[in-house]
Request: fold
Amino acid sequence: MEHVVFEVKKLIVGQDMLLERLIVAMLARGHVLVEGVPGLAKTLAIKTVAQTIGVDFQRIQFTPDLVPADLIGTRIYNQRLGEFQTSLGPVHTNLLLADEINRAPAKVQSALLEVMQERQVTIGRETHRVGDPFLVMATQNPIESEGTYPLPEAQLDRFMLKVLVDYPTPTEEFVIVERMTTKIDPPQQVIGSAELLQMQQAADAVYVDSALMEYAVRVVNATRNPTTVGLHDLTRYVTFGASPRASINMILSAKALAFLRGRTYALPQDVTDLALDVLRHRIVLSYEALADNISADSILTRVLAAVPVPVVPLRESPVAYDDTIFRPDP
Reply:
């Protein structure tokens, strides 16, 4: 993965957090929603990452006139054979870029629900599996309202991470201008799908202490009931808290981040570093929060500060050791 980042950095300046989150999502088999104003290289970063990995890649430009068949495929009547044949859509790939995903209406958004959760699509009476690995990386623009549609909560919950991209620093922007106005070598493929699957399996094997799982559950429960951690004033701002997918994805993403950082065990910092990205799109704010200009990040920051972080010892999974070694003293 270091070689992947090196190749991507040939073209992308800055955006270290975005690149780290994209790689974490690939290792954890999760989907990513990237939000930022136009011109911040959201689409370019995703396409460049895809170029460095030898997997099938498809891009869909979401527009208001899309229909579900444009994504998953449809049945076409073959006059020569006198029968219907299935024409598969662009979701049948390994890495799917859904560009400007909030520009398509709800009926198109709902077409992604099955494939994002179950890695399959149903056309007529036939069910078709998509490739392995399969990842959806979507972008959306937060400042435009005309011609856009809010994503359904059910679809937002299927994204493992929501990453917010900000403007580059003046120094980074100077390098961007310099690099984009001269000829540069395109990124090269570094790994293939087989290597990616092996790294996904290695990330799955990262050890997570039960205290970290309990911490993730407590944080997610605090988003539903802020009073349990003494945040009584936040109750009026939160209509619905995060679902159990949030606590699951907090642990899965932490395992991938620990693997990316060169460890075979997860630490509390791995969980806390990704907590905002996992949770910010899963809580539903009330109208009062919108009126008071209260953001999801500000609420989650207070929740994370109120839930004590556990102290986890530096250790690997004890599954390979003799049970008598860890038997407590009388």
Notes: The first strand starts at residue 32 and ends at 35.
